[in-house]
Fold these 4 entries.
Entry 1:
Amino acid sequence: MRAIDFKDDSDQVADNRPLLTFPNPQQVSLSIRASALVFSDPQSQKLLSFIERVAPSNATALIMGETGTGKELVARHLHSLSPCREGPFAAINCGAFSETLVESELFGYERGAFTGAVGSKAGWFESANGGTLFLDEIGDLPLSTQVKLLRVLQEREVVRVGSRKPIPIEVRLIAATNVNLEEAVKAGRFREDLYYRIKVVPIQLAPLRERLGDILPLVRYFIAKYKSRLHTVEPELAPETLRLLHDYPWPGNIRELENVIHRALLVCDGGILRPHNLNLPAIQSVASSREDEPVESTGPDTWPLEKALSGLFNQEPAELYDLVNRKLIIQAYEFCRSNQVQTARLLGISRNVLRTQLKHFGVID
């Protein structure tokens, strides 16, 4: 198993697993969205081999995957293995700027180019010259900027806003998206020529729910990471906790898992991490177990019941069976307006069994 990790002196991790660290002080980034990308699952190991095979080519890459799957970490790993690794790594979220600002942010501007431009400023392409520029959420770029980006990639030069002088650049572009760009092309929201220009090396990151072999190594990694920060002991994982971790579909992927483990360590006591410490939505943990099952076209919808039961399982209340049975009998009895015959028919039991249950729960004498 291998993991990509970014650490500084204040983040010491007691972990003997091999980590890929990039301490280059020239690296520039607006944000780091996930702090570890573990390659333990066979699917992940296969992807890692592909990444390391194509990285030295210096070709433009498009990383596709859901939010929180570690797209920026993969981009950094590509940068570390590429011929331009001596240059800076710059990361920018294309959706973080308004349509009127994104062009000047990417390509720079000259003094007087627009109101408020009191001086010249280099854009992100110039800042990343000799290195790698990571454009996250590239699907958010307006069409007018997409045209100019395509020209930059083709001509290997930028023209600042308010200038006519081209500036040569040597930058490896890595783009990322969590939307289907092919659908965006069909809808006219993304240029087809740009799509094929950035998709020289397509890299598809699977969601965490499809990489079950990565979940436990990630959990242990984050436990080791945060126990040192919180100055606490490493808790044991209860068997039911392990099951829940694997059953939950992790819609937020690695980022969500990290936050869940961080919180769990804050509230855990007794040295054992239990399901209720994770505080996971009950409906999600049920949904994952049903995700691959065929959908029945007939029959009652039991999802609300399963959701409620899963929530109770996470809470681990005392005498759970009696609690659930009592609720079932009494609510059915009230629904049938205290009619024992109708209640028995609704529950599919005899009237004698129903009367015994009602007496047991003190509903009737």
Note: Residues 212-230 form the longest helix (19 residues).
Entry 2:
Amino acid sequence: MPAVGRSEIEDVFRADHGRAVAVLARVFGDLDVAEEAVQDAFVAAVARWPNAGLPPSPAGWIITTARNKAIDRLRREASRADRHAQAALLHAQDQPGQEGEEEREDPVGDDRLRLIFTCCHPALGTGAQVALTLRLLGGLTTAQIARAFLVPEPTMAQRLVRAKGKIRDAGIPYRVPTEAELPDRLRPVLAVVYLIFNEGSTASSGERLVREDLCAEAIRLGRLLAELLPDEPEVQGLLALLLLTDARRAARATPGGDLVPLADQDRGRWDRDRIAEGQAIVRRCLRRNQPGPYQVQAAIAAVHSDAPTAAATDWRQIVALYDQLLALAPSPVVALNRAVAVAEVEGPAAALALVDGLDLDGWYLFHAVRADLLRRLGRPAEAAPAYQAAIARTANAAERAFLEGRLRTVLPP
């Protein structure tokens, strides 16, 4: 049997961590037990698979191993009169023993989607709901989640500990919300799916620009949500946004992995089927006339996808849509994106004035946008430190290489 490298095990982790945690959370009714068991199973895989080879079903092996390890641990703890461990064991005995066995009916027929709704319990703050789900379902590191929230890593670590502690101390059960409860859980659920996609679309660290597994998982979850809640326009808007953004994936990097900015992309490589599907959803949303942030972002993506060339982009319409988005969901990040569009309509000087008024020093894209505007204004001495600040704030190799290339263009010969 062929040996298995660490990168192959990491691929399995990225693809199946969320599913395994979701299944184990259902089996044991406890998020801590589920996450620890899955971690133990992957530790076992690292020790066994390099010599034994990949099992026929890596995901099934991880889930079975995690379940067995959790039961062994809980039995040891239950023997010490640990009522928490006893409760988890009793819950496991009430669950189907095999993945394929029939499950109780509920309005959400997917373990991973159920885990999202469970983590998005109203007893937790929205930020904690999103961060916890990204940790458990997406398998994202604390550093990656901190980057998504634009906060320091220690701050995010504390939030995750508090969120899991609140679930444990308050006895919040792992259960599916009723149909009546689903709409109230929707906002953080959409945020989770969106952030999973964002991490996949531009990975916060590593050698690759894109993590295709996370993009695919976010779109899969978006489709499930659209089937579950077909009358929620923001669900449809999110799905359209993901499809229209992902349609550009093949053109965003060279075969060697180098980043290609939007203006330089070969639009012939864009996925026209995804664009057609996304644009059709946007048109349906427009007919509903119930605008929301995801629908407006999808409309912006649709305008980009309509343009046969970068020069043909209707930037005035994009600025108008960003004005609407700022009214619906004001944030410095939205304001930064709007400034990029303003640069194409009113010039880089007008955009720079807007950017310099934003408080986004910790985010690499703020410095990257500012550097690009300064470069376009012919101010290389100011652009260089801005590029250096952006480089210092990204851990993605493709982004770093692109920014380093731009830096070289503004440095004196």
Note: The CA atoms of residues 315 and 341 lie 6 Å apart.
Entry 3:
Amino acid sequence: MDFPEVRMRRLRRLDTLRSLVRETTVDVSDLVYPLFVMEGRNIKTEIGSMPGINQFSVDRLPREVEEIARLGIPAVILFGIPENKDEVGSSAYDSEGVVQKAIRAIKKEVPELLVVTDVCLCEYTSHGHCGVVVDKVVDNDKTLPLLAKMALSHAEAGADMVAPSDMMDGRVGAIRRALDEKGFIHLPIMSYAAKYASAFYGPFREAAQSAPQFGDRRSYQMDPANVREALREVQLDIDEGADIIMVKPALSYLDVIRRVRDRFDCPVAAYNVSGEYAMVKAAAKNGWLDERRTVTEILTSIKRAGADIIITYHAREFAAWMQEDKGAR
């Protein structure tokens, strides 16, 4: 059959019809909201390149996570900004470190909120790289025990899931062994399996104060041109014990998300990163884009590409929009 018998526009005529036949929907339950926590008291500082996103001291977290939970967002992922940095990132695995204190504060206030922790040394090292540096080169194997120690300290503080983002070879296996040996056999690992050396991380480095002091991260993060390599990275992380795998960034790597989704059966996460967020905010501020429609379209594209979980700085505003829609019905 062909036109005029077939008229594709019939199902686009009414909003109710469009909703009824919609193939992909984004729900608040799909989202994870990033939080930046720092030492000090009574701190809530907006990040200049990320309007609406703040750095919080631990004592300001209870009010924030109460609101996050009220909006129906099921999970947060924590990034720490320590008071002191050194060559080996020792604050990262200190039981009284900023993330460890934040985990306990959140779990005390909103125990049902899922707390995921980023496991990487870049925010904690004086040189800003994601591992131990020897002769200006990140030493993969010397970094693994520290990442395992960091993940274990998060588990002991009460984290629900750990998420290694460092891109060291073998780190998922090292973390899995460390957790299992200490009885945390049920704690899942969400691995940043395909993390690219992207220009879209710029605002995050301001937020987390984690810019490298020399060189860049291209020797351990992936080349943006490669997708077959991403599939190898994902397979290796699954083999080492990853329960959820992630592609980062999301928007410029939708093809990678789709390839990963088609190849593997485990849950897939995607990180809608800081630069992607900042671009939308800047364009919306200038009146060049309708912010709500743009955000919804972006999140839908990530879900349509195959992501089950979306880490996004838009989570709070998206959840608020959804609640407004429900209230208007």
Note: Residues 172 and 240 are 6 Å apart (CA to CA).
Entry 4:
Amino acid sequence: MTDLNSPDSRENDSDGSVRLQVYLAHAGVASRRASEQLIMEGRVTVNGSVATKLGTRVKESDEVLVDGNKVRPEEHKRYVLLNKPSGYVCSLVDEKGRKVAVDLLSAVYSERLYNIGRLDMYSAGAILFTNDGDFANKIGHPSAQIEKEYIIEASLPFRDEVLDAFTKGIRIDGVFYRALKAERMSSRRMRIVLIEGKNREIRRVLEHFDIRIKSLIRIRIGPVELGSLKYGEFRNLTRSEIDTLLNTGNQ
């Protein structure tokens, strides 16, 4: 059992209690930010009462339920890289009945894992899963400055103006997009490195130039590379990869 009184929680009070969103993150429900949303939506109860205040504090002895299911801080922290196939959504559940990426992990991991960041349904490649809310909160924040590398194949050749738009920056519908690196690998193949990675950034820039994407694959997140993982395969992160991800934003 995770010790909520340990220094690692960093949120504990003198009576051993922690904020509810921290408790949910330690229980592998979601990141702190996503847990706050669950609380505000009235989906969390503490000892039979709906908790809607983010300042609510709980102890290990309290009964905490999310959507009627009891949750507890988990003993083992998991850090997993998945090579997500196209056609899967990055969500814990999908009300439209689409395939969910986290289900690819369920046969091996009994813990409640959730994705850090997203890949859209038609994109493939590297995505991280964890049940460590502090880890997710740290590396998922834009201030972490973690590089994400993509290989894109398109229906038309990449003109110079497309590469210039990515490297120099372009404003589309009021949103400014700029890649850290952009290079042509062949006439219809390009490598892009992003740091912040706004929602559907690559797709929106290419759509602006009437270029249809045939495939979009994320091959790296910081030091974590897909390597030989096939679609649908996954592996645990190494200790070195975890430490490097956590320290990237401090360099």
Note: The chain has three domains: 7-71, 79-143+224-248, 147-221.
